[in-house]
């Protein structure tokens, strides 16, 4: 039953892809997602901002985009179907009032990708958006390749 629900969710997020392509990607390890959330919240706390909470819907959208980038071997904010972040969130059932997306490729640890984002003014600003309440994490590593990372920070409508 859970496998059928996961397949249905994948079909809704990426209707034009073959099931074998989707199944090959997997999920972000829970420990990695928790560690990234902890690091993001530590950066927010250091600036006097409230913590963001994990959102299963945002996690699913982030993971789908990380998998899409890994399959294409290309990092970008656009999906392989031409979708933008707002369209991907709508397909994932997350109605947002605020959303920001950080992506990265090639970092082998949560600490390294977080440090890189905090060194970049635009990525840092996304992490430190005061109105953000939710976060989603996606990480996909192609066979023999380096990881693709997606961090979503958002607030629902």
UniProtKB/TrEMBL annotation:
Pfam families: CAP
Keyword Glycoprotein attributed: no
Signal peptide: 1-20
Ranges annotated as spanning the membrane: none
Coiled-coil regions, chain positions: none
CDD domains: CAP_bacterial (cd05379)
Keywords for the protein's UniProt record, in alphabetical order: Signal
This protein's record includes keyword DNA repair: no
Domain SCP: residue ranges: 39-151
Stored PANTHER family: SCP DOMAIN-CONTAINING PROTEIN
Protein name (record): SCP domain-containing protein
């Amino acid at each position: 039953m859970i496998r059928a629900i996961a397949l249905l969710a994948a079909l809704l997020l990426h209707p034009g892809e073959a099931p074998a392509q989707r199944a090959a990607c997997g999920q972000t390890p829970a420990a990695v997602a928790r560690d990234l959330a902890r690091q993001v919240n530590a950066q927010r706390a250091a600036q006097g901002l409230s913590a963001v909470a994990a959102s299963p819907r945002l996690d699913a959208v982030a993971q789908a985009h990380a998998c899409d980038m890994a399959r294409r071997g290309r990092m970008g904010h656009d999906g392989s179907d031409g979708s933008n972040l707002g369209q991907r969130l709508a397909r994932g059932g997350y109605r947002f009032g605020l959303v920001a997306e950080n992506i990265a490729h090639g970092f082998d640890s949560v600490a390294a990708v977080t440090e890189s984002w905090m060194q970049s003014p635009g990525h840092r600003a996304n992490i430190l958006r005061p109105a953000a309440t939710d976060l989603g994490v996606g990480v996909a590593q192609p066979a023999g390749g380096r990881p693709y990372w997606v961090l979503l920070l958002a607030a629902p409508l």
